[in-house]
Design goal:
Helix content is 78%, strand content 0%. With 108 residues, it is mainly α. It folds into two domains: 53 residues; 42 residues. It is elongated, with a radius of gyration of 30 Å. The model has no long low-confidence stretch (mean pLDDT 88).
Length: 108
């Protein structure tokens, strides 16, 4: 009789522990979903803002690159001009981004 009560007691605590564990996992999943939803909304806002940027001044002068002779384009490709422009452009974007954060104005 006592062994039956002890077994029932252990069974109750095991089921209670399993319930708490499932509730905790559900709470973590819900928190993860909320954070991913916030990230999705933020990226949707960024997409909307980038879509509103007027890039016509940049795109209307793209025909100038077609006037460059092919030999010059080949040499520019060999010396890594495109990679250089990417590095410089990303450095400018990072610098502007850091300037937007308060108290991170290093060197300026």
């Amino acid at each position: 009789m006592i062994q039956t009560i002890i077994d029932l007691w252990h069974e109750f605590w095991d089921s209670l522990l399993l319930l708490v564990q499932k509730c905790f996992n559900t709470l973590l999943t819900m928190l993860k979903d909320v954070l991913l939803w916030l990230l999705d909304q933020l990226l949707s806002l960024v997409t909307t803002l980038l879509g509103a940027v007027d890039l016509s001044a940049i795109t209307q002068n793209m025909g100038v690159f077609q006037q460059i002779p092919s030999e010059v384009l080949n040499v520019l490709g060999l010396v890594g001009f495109a990679q250089c422009m990417v590095i410089i452009g990303s450095a400018i974007v990072i610098r502007i981004g850091l300037q937007l954060i308060p108290f991170v104005r290093l060197g300026s």
